[in-house]
């Protein structure tokens, strides 16, 4: 069965009440990982106070089912599907969830793939979005990034500037 990948973003309607961003990342990752075992979906999600940016990979019907569920989720609004394509291999083996905060390394990633020192998918190319998600997948846990999925499977590196 052919693999597909979608990339989309939406507005974040979540407000933290008594929890930490690290806990929110952990909870989202756990939900993704649990669904992944049943559906075969993999992907990456990066978010800040304003946006969710996500890539999802797997069989078309599983992606469609998950997308319908997300469209009804009260934590997000204004979903914009920016890419839907058939892929030969996955960019993300398992799930990666990261908080798009601010630090020198993170701000450099935002500027490399976008136009501002923050996550703002409204002003990014589709390839820039995918490459930003790949770059986050290679960050260590000190950047509020967590992973679940196939252990030991190398992720595809984002392309280097000028490549």
Task: Give a summary of the structure in a few sentences.
This is BLUF domain-containing protein. With 163 residues, this protein is an alpha+beta fold. The chain has helices at residues 21-39, 60-71, 104-113, 126-137, and strands spanning 3-12, 42-47, 51-58, 76-87, 95-99, 145-148.
Report what the structure shows.
With 163 residues, the protein is an alpha+beta fold. Helix content is 33%, strand content 28%. It has helices at 21-39, 60-71, 104-113, 126-137, and strands spanning 3-12, 42-47, 51-58, 76-87, 95-99, 145-148. It has a six-stranded mixed β-sheet with strand order 4-1-3-2-5-6, with helices on both faces. Helix 3 (104-113) runs antiparallel to helix 4. The N and C termini lie far apart (32 Å). InterPro entries: Acylphosphatase-like_dom_sf, BLUF_domain. Residues 3-98 form the BLUF domain. It comes from Methylobacterium iners. Pfam families: BLUF (PF04940).
Main sheet characteristics: 6 strands, mixed
First-to-last CA distance: 32 Å
Mean pLDDT score: 80
**Arrangement of strands in the largest sheet:** 4-1-3-2-5-6
C-alpha Rg, in Å? 15 Å
Classify the beta-strand content into a percent band.
25-35%
Low-confidence stretches: 150-163
| SS elements, strand count | 6
Tell me roughly what share of residues is in helical segments: 25-40%
Domain BLUF: 3-98
InterPro entries: Acylphosphatase-like_dom_sf (IPR036046), BLUF_domain (IPR007024)
Protein name: BLUF domain-containing protein
Pfam families: BLUF
